[in-house]
Amino acid sequence: MKLLSTPRTILLSASAASLVLFVAVLVHVLRQPERFSLIGLVLPPDQQAQRQFRRGAFVEAAQRFTDPYWQAAAYYRAGDFKQAAGIIRAWIRYRRRSTMATL
């Protein structure tokens, strides 16, 4: 006996698949709430990093900053002086090459 697909069975299977997908996404979001907050949806990464910097979460801020100056400042405040120095050195090399290219 062959089961025929009716619009109702198709709708029910689509609803079940949507529910499973929704639950999977919800579980993923609840495991990492700091990555999926409303602030994360509204603020760009540098502003999110600035908020973390002000709170004293310097390592998290450094990982989120895109500006090398602020990245280095956050690593410095976190006590990771080698990482801060490496970022500053790379930034200085970039600026030096950029300046030489314009001359």
Word description of this protein:
- The protein contains 6 helices and no strands.
- The chain is mostly helical and 103 residues long.
- Helix 3 (45-55) packs antiparallel against helix 4 (58-64) and helix 5 runs antiparallel to helix 6.
- The longest helix is centred in the first third of the chain and has 25 residues, at 7-31.
- It is elongated, with a radius of gyration of 24 Å.
Describe the structure concisely.
This protein has 6 helices and no strands. The protein has 103 residues and is mainly alpha-helical.
- CA radius of gyration is 24 Å
Sequence stretches where pLDDT stays below 50 over 5 or more residues:
none
Number of helices: 6
Indicate how many domains the architecture comprises.
Answer: 1
Structural class call reads: mainly alpha
Q: Which geometry do the CA atoms define?
A: elongated
Largest sheet: none
Task: Give the N-to-C terminal Cα separation.
Answer: 82 Å
User: How many strands in all?
Assistant: 0
Order of helices and strands: HHHHHH
| Estimated helix fraction | over 70%
